[in-house]
């Protein structure tokens, strides 16, 4: 086990203390590194999505007619992902890139199922979610996407699955960030991809045209929709910056996630 602070056999009960010291050291090193700008951008993207959702979601929940019981799936994905993004970002900033990846896999699963249900309107799948029955992300969802080609989503899912199970690449065995800068950068890339995909679900499938209409027509604060338009502009600008140094393979994942999906129809 690799800790910056001393860890000796005769230091019984010191694991938590030494780990805590190391995480503090990691945070200080990251704050002084080039990666800090990426974390600032990630936090800004999450804050902007929260502010955008705050304008529309309460109206949407009460007035918009989401067919086939979609709103619980869509809103659950977004609300829970706010906590999931926060947790995975904070873990990564401490150097705990391994545990963070299990959460990132959850985020990808939640937004992929949410979008698929919104596109397909499949009652069997929606009922599975409501009943907390197993939904196979590959077989029940991704493999059912006819267009665009689903190969980039499959490639993205494969390592996320490995990180979430007892595999050679799961979790981590070293806490010292000096030996793991590449792992940190990998998590940053994953966070950027998932944040843009998460926003797509919010902006297209939750805050739909009906939600925008009701905010414009009935919200007592007439400036709210204008604030929403401004936030969307800020998000577009920051997502362009977020993708600037992103590897092409991850840009393809974003492209294929946010495109219009044509899906195979399930038997209902």
Report what the structure shows.
The protein is mostly helical. The protein has eleven helices and two strands, in the order H-H-H-H-H-H-E-H-H-H-H-H-E. It has one domain. It has a two-stranded antiparallel ribbon with strand order 1-2.
Briefly characterize the structure:
The chain is mainly alpha-helical. Helix content is 70%, strand content 2%.
Summarize the topology.
Elements: H1 15-31, H2 35-63, H3 70-93, H4 97-120, H5 123-131, H6 137-141, E1 145-147, H7 151-164, H8 181-206, H9 209-218, H10 224-242, H11 248-258, E2 262-263
Antiparallel strand pairs: 1-2
Helix pairs in contact: 2-3, 2-8, 2-9, 2-10, 3-4, 3-8, 4-7, 4-8, 8-11
Q: Which terms would index this structure?
A:
globular; mainly alpha; disordered N terminus; 2 strands; 268 residues
The average pLDDT is 89
> In which order are the strands of the major sheet placed?
1-2
Total strand segments: 2
Work out the count of structural domains: 1
Ends: how far apart? 52 Å
Q: Indicate the proportion of strand residues.
A: under 5%
Q: Largest sheet at a glance? A: 2 strands, antiparallel
Q: Return residue spans where pLDDT drops below 50 for at least 5 consecutive residues.
A: 1-10
What general outline do the C-alpha atoms trace? globular
Q: What's the total helix number?
A: 11
Q: Helices and strands, in N-to-C order?
A: HHHHHHEHHHHHE
- The share of residues in helices is over 70%
* Content-based structural category: mainly alpha
Output the radius of gyration.
20 Å
């Amino acid at each position: 086990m690799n800790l910056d602070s001393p860890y000796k056999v005769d230091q019984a009960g010191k694991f938590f203390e030494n780990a805590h010291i190391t995480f503090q050291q990691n945070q200080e090193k990251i704050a002084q590194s080039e990666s800090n700008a990426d974390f600032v951008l990630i936090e800004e993207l999450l804050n902007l999505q929260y502010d955008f959702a705050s304008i529309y979601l309460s109206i949407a929940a009460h007035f918009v007619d989401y067919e086939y019981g979609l709103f619980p799936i869509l809103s659950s994905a977004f609300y829970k992902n706010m906590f999931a993004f926060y947790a995975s970002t904070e873990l990564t900033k401490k150097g705990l890139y391994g545990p963070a990846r299990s959460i990132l896999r959850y985020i990808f699963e939640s937004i992929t199922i949410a979008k698929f249900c919104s596109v397909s309107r499949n009652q069997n799948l929606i009922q599975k979610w409501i009943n907390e029955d197993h939904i196979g992300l590959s077989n029940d969802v991704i493999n059912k996407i006819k267009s665009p080609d689903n190969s980039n989503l499959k490639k993205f899912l494969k390592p996320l699955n490995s990180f979430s199970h007892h595999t050679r690449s799961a979790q981590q065995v070293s806490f010292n960030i000096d030996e793991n800068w590449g792992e940190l950068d990998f998590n940053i890339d994953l966070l950027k991809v998932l944040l843009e995909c998460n926003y797509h679900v919010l902006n297209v499938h939750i805050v739909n045209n009906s939600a925008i209409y009701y905010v414009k027509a009935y919200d007592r604060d007439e400036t709210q929709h204008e604030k929403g338009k401004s936030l969307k502009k800020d998000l577009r600008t920051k997502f362009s910056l977020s993708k600037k140094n992103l590897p092409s393979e991850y840009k393809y994942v974003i492209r294929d996630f946010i495109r219009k999906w044509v899906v195979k129809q399930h038997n209902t």
